[in-house]
Design a protein that fits this description.
Blueprint lengths: L1 H13 L3 H8 L3 H14 L20 H14 L3 H10 L6 H10 L28 E9 L5 E9 L5 E6 L4 H14 L6 E4 L7 H7 L2 E4 L9 H13 L8 H17 L11 H4 L4
Parallel strand pairs: 1-4, 4-5
Antiparallel strand pairs: 1-2, 2-3
Helix pairs in contact: 1-2, 1-3, 2-3, 5-6, 7-8
């Protein structure tokens, strides 16, 4: 159709009337006249098809309401339901779907990534002994603008026993080797592994690990609460004061793990150390 419109305008410029061109191409002459007008504005190029969306609607939101929705979203970054109730409390009548549509049209919503893979849900086991549920995560540390190093972290939810190691790269194979090394060091057997949806814990890792595995639920940050809190403790008590070098960090981590597992008291396990909890099982 863009080329047909261009050809119709060419015929008119050659001397044909709009009615003659319309009969020749099978369109109404008023449409041909609009194409000629567009050709004069755009030049001798294919005339693209415009959206059929109407310019206005009797029930469309006013500019004042639209600007308030955008302003509230940018000021506190609240979600559509919260914005809807805030507007309702201010006496502004607007539907929830209109709020969502306004945010979407102004590119203020975060779209779900098409590359996210679906992982079947698996119930989160309740830890009754060491190894019933162990959590995995990775800390990314920026060395410069282009280079990173990675700290792989492991924690047993029941005993709070931890194992940590730093690597120059991040991959599923490194994750696999890290878990196998942690199993050699751990005084108990791992029954269930839990990780987030990071690429280092992808499908290949799950098939090769040969252990029960579950992914954290989307939008449920408490699933990984223990390891996220340990990540903060590890950085504050050890990593933040070290140079960003893998060998230096690993030497310091070996000393810190002995302190954390054998000496550091934990409120979550009645002010015992992890190695005081593990031997009882």
């Amino acid at each position: 159709m863009p080329r047909v419109r261009r050809d119709a305008a060419r015929l008119v410029f050659k001397g044909w009337s709009a009615r003659k061109v319309g009969r020749y191409l099978g369109f109404h002459h008023t449409a041909v006249m609009k194409w000629v007008k567009e050709a004069k504005r755009q030049g001798d190029v294919p005339i693209p098809t415009k959206s059929s969306r109407p310019w206005s609607h009797p029930k469309q939101l006013t500019k004042n309401i639209v600007s308030k929705i955008i302003e509230k979203r940018k000021s506190h970054n609240r979600y559509a339901e919260a914005l809807y109730h805030e507007l309702k409390n201010e006496g502004i009548k607007v539907s929830l779907s209109s709020v969502k549509r306004t945010l979407d049209r102004n590119y203020l919503t975060k779209k779900k990534s098409p590359w996210k893979r679906f992982h079947p849900h698996q119930d989160r086991p309740y830890p009754l002994k060491p190894g019933d549920l162990v959590e995995l995560d990775t800390i990314h540390i920026m060395v410069d603008k282009t280079k990173r190093i990675y700290i792989f972290v492991f924690i047993d939810v029941y005993s709070r026993w931890v194992y940590v190691r730093c690597y120059e790269k991040m991959s599923s194979r490194i994750s696999l080797n890290f878990v196998r090394e942690a199993q050699k060091q751990a005084p108990f057997f791992f029954n269930m592994l839990q990780s987030d949806h990071g690429p280092e814990f992808g499908n290949w890792f799950v098939t090769q690990i040969k252990k029960n595995h579950r992914y954290t639920r989307i939008g449920k940050p408490n699933d990984n609460a223990h390891i996220e809190r340990f990540n903060r403790t590890l950085q504050e008590e050890c990593v933040d004061e070290l140079p960003k070098d893998v060998r230096t960090i690993n030497r310091a981590l070996r000393k810190y793990l002995k302190y954390y597992n054998y000496e550091r008291l934990h409120n979550g396990i009645n002010f015992l150390t992890p190695m005081q909890v593990v031997p009882s099982y």
